[in-house]
Design brief:
Its main location: cytoplasm. The chain is an all-alpha fold. The chain has a domain of 163 residues. It contains 17 helices and no strands. Helix 10 runs antiparallel to helix 11. The longest helix is centred in the middle third of the chain and has 22 residues. The protein is elongated and about 80 Å long. The relative contact order is 0.06. The C terminus is likely disordered.
Length: 344
């Protein structure tokens, strides 16, 4: 599952550090001189203080008090997470945030840019800088907590943007939905995906891969509705599961993906089967077989074998279905493909 990020990255990854002697210079001057090879001119004063302290002093001198406060809070949060995990944990073996100059550079760069944009009332720029931190700068597994923090900041900022037709708000709901889903909060994820779907109806917005936001919303809702239905079936809530899977099928059809539609139909037929409505289950299965006949043979087999791949959705109840049900449908398709009469 991939988060929605900016169309392209415009910021520099290695940022700035203006030190005592040159604190009055514009921030970009440090990069200018540093990459011309004049490191020693700037790095002499840094020996007096830690890297973190020099960055913090510079932010305060230039008036970025909110950025300083946020950076300090994040460092404290990392230390608290490390202490809570204790010796022997993965995070205990990592360097602290204040001991990683590249990450401090990135935080300093984008936080101050976001603060400057906020002062000017340009909330779309605030959002973009926060998203750069979440999507590009902190995408390693060890930085998951930091990435999630900035996705949450993006979500809060997106509510203030009024000039982009709701695109960034939609993007923020999609990203928060993914975070909620990863954390096991399925109902919360569904709420975010539903708003994402509503905001993208009729739009032509696309992600980096060329998929429309609305088709992504349909895919997310199909997946999350299937997970919700699975939990309902575990609790013997058959009718509620059927209603939820009907919604999942609707999303699959709107998404325009025949494989997804075939799987959604398959899950719905199983729900009817578990509910004891065998005739309805067979009629839904009939629709499924007619659907796969309109697809290439390899793809159609993929749909009918989808029950063997349900664990990728985390769907334990569907995975534990009667294997004879899948075998019957597979045999049926193979016979039809080999020339047998179709439902004569």
């Amino acid at each position: 599952l991939t988060h929605l990020g900016p169309c392209h990255f415009t910021g520099t990854k290695v940022c700035f550090l203006t030190l005592d002697t040159y604190a009055c210079k514009p921030l970009h001057m440090y990069l200018k001189y540093r990459f011309k090879g004049l490191k020693s001119l700037f790095l002499i004063p840094s020996n007096r203080n830690s890297y973190k302290k020099n960055i913090c002093i510079d932010m305060l001198r230039q008036g970025y008090h909110e950025s300083f406060s946020e950076l300090f809070t994040l460092i404290q949060k990392w230390n608290a997470l490390r202490e809570a995990a204790g010796p022997g944990s993965a995070i205990w073996q990592q360097k602290s945030l204040e001991e990683q100059p590249d990450k401090l550079d990135q935080l300093c760069h984008f936080l101050t840019r976001a603060e400057a944009a906020q002062r000017a009332g340009h909330y779309e720029e605030v959002y973009d800088n926060q998203l750069n931190l979440a999507y590009y700068c902190f995408n390693d597994p060890e930085d998951k907590w930091l990435s999630n923090y900035f996705y949450e900041q993006c979500f809060n900022t997106a509510q203030l943007i009024k000039i982009d037709g709701g695109k960034r708000e939609a993007q923020a709901h999609a990203n928060m939905g993914l975070i909620s889903e990863e954390q096991g909060h399925v109902m919360k994820a569904a709420e975010h995906y539903e708003v994402f779907y509503q905001l993208t109806e009729g739009s032509t917005w696309k992600d980096e891969t060329g998929h429309t936001y609305n088709s992504l919303a349909c895919e997310h809702l199909w997946r999350i509705y299937t997970l919700l239905a699975d939990k309902m079936l575990e609790n013997k809530e058959h009718q509620q599961a059927i209603k939820t899977l009907i919604k999942a099928l609707k999303m699959a059809k709107e998404g325009g993906d025949k494989m997804m539609e075939g799987e959604a139909t398959y899950y719905l037929s199983l729900a009817y089967h578990f509910a004891g409505e065998q005739q309805t289950a067979l009629s839904v299965s009939y629709f499924k077989v007619t659907l796969v006949f309109s697809m290439p043979f390899s793809a159609s087999l993929g749909i009918l074998e989808s029950g063997k791949d349900l664990k990728r959705l985390g769907s334990q109840t569907f995975y534990n279905l009667n294997s004879a049900w899948v075998s019957m449908l597979l045999t049926w398709l193979l016979q039809c493909r080999s020339g047998s009469r179709f439902l004569s």
